[in-house]
Amino acid sequence: SGKIIINGQEIEFTCEKNILAVARKAGIDIPTLCYHPELTVAGACRLCVVEIERMGIQASCSTAPVDGMVVYTNSERVNKVRKMVLELLLANHNRECTTCDASGACKLQKYAHDYSIKRLRYPSRQEMAPMDTSSLSIVRDPNKCILCGLCVRVCKEKQGVGVWDFKNRGSRTEIVAAMDQPLAESACINCGQCIAVCPTGALTSNSSVSEVWAAIRDPRKTVVCQIAPAPRTALGEEFGLGSVDVTGKIVSALRKIGFDRVFDTVFAADMTTIEESNEFLDRLAKGEKLPIFTSCCPGWVKYAEQFHPELLDNISTCRSPQQMFGSVLKKKYCQELGIKPEDMFVVSIMPCTAKKYEAKRPEFTTAGSYDVDAVLTTVEAAQMFREAGIIFEQLPESDFDEPMQQATGSGVLFGATGGVMESVVRYVTGKLLKTEGRIDIEFVRGMADTKIATLNVGDNKLTLAVVNGLAAAEALIEKIKSGELEVHAVEVMACPGGCVGGGGQPFQNDSAARSARAKEIYNIDTRMVLHKAQDNQDLNKIFEKYWGGCCNHDTHHDLHTHYHP
Ligand code: HC0
Ligand code: SF4
């Protein structure tokens, strides 16, 4: 600890690792492209340079504060270097901002404005390299890559997957997917965390917007939408409303743009809670296939298929809420409406790019038609609303459609890390101990990447673990396999903070944004009337009407699946 002087202002530092963090703490921003507070420091882009007395120009991300240091963040020399860095990057960049999905969210675009870059002294790049559109989830445009390496680091450090890497050196340096293959052929789990950290439009979601417009405009199609838990506290950010609950406005907007029915994925999350909790209780009674792992994150499921085939029997056979709802709509609700599965077009709004991949898994079809036809990310949904001229901020709130209208707070919790576990615990305690009302399970909450606790539920002493980020999941799996840790159930979500931090959520997708979204998820739960899945009366009626009850042979057929290595 000590004090440094930044721009004449004395600032104390304690545990900050670099000058950049000290400055930002004091309310002085320094531009960065290759820096991310949650990843290792690369010091590659040189945009964060500052001038330090007796040390000259230094990168503030990789220079530690030393007591007595005198730093200038905005001197003439500093700005000259920054402008040159920006000009060099722009010279080698496809600058078609008007057609770029990242326009408005791009840091290179922002800094070019901030630093008044008007005319480039360097010729612009002539040859364009082909885009990689092979993946259902992620599109990569190499012409917009600035080689910051954040995608390389997030995939390696947070997910332990390591799909992206540098190739060649010097001016021929590029970033490629493993073995220089198309992304779809790699071990990519589709989580989109590389999109979330990419400062430019080099990585974006594989948009389903035009496909959805086409279905809405097709008179033969009944278009149905479901909305996941996490987008409801993030979509408002796209319209300047902050991380507040905008569920009712999203429903209104979807009706306005032409959806025939609008449902809540939370209804299906309650369904998942009931099916999965009973599967868990059954395995506990038999003492088999424990610990049970959750199955709702398709990033995690693909990771397990590729790297832990020995665990596939432990993963819950439940389909994710997205796919349970798709199955209900295409197998049952279609019949009720008297239409064929191929004449219904099911769209889901998800915080997630991996859900695009999940929807196209061959397991999840009905009579040759996908149970979920298209997945829009939160960002893509907002784009459609803007395109339709909807003034989102001013929309009134609407309710979801019947007969699958009710939802419980526990289902909403699915959107934050720990939420699936909390829902299961609420269901199990409600069932075994006949408890009424809401029970909050505090240990599962919060943004730590690993949370473990032992709870007494009736005669059962249950050790439960919640992880987010697959590197954290990998560490936990190693402890379980070595016998160091004995657990009964594990919730795994690939993204930091769970789905609130998904790869399809608005920028800035940083820890502050994730915490704000998660906080509102818990606020929604407290405001709702029902808090455990078994209290959802619409759901109980649907279970009765379609399958003669829950957790039986027929629900197993329609709502569960099997995973293969
Ligand atoms: Fe999630 Fe889900 S909670 S995975 O994070 O389980 O995407 O929001 O929709 O399916 O419900 C994502 C979010 C979902 C599903 C639910 C689960
Ligand atoms: Fe998708 Fe959620 Fe899994 Fe991230 S944690 S990959 S948003 S399901």
Automatic annotation (TrEMBL):
Ranges for domain 4Fe-4S His(Cys)3-ligated-type: 77-116
Source species, domain of life: Bacteria
GO cellular component: membrane
A Gene Ontology molecular function term of the record: 4 iron, 4 sulfur cluster binding
UniProt domain 4Fe-4S ferredoxin-type: residue ranges: 136-166, 179-208
Cofactor: [4Fe-4S] cluster; [2Fe-2S] cluster
Family classification: Belongs to the complex I 75 kDa subunit family.
Protein name (Swiss-Prot/TrEMBL): Hydrogenase, Fe-only
Higher taxonomy: Bacteria, Bacillati, Bacillota, Clostridia, Eubacteriales
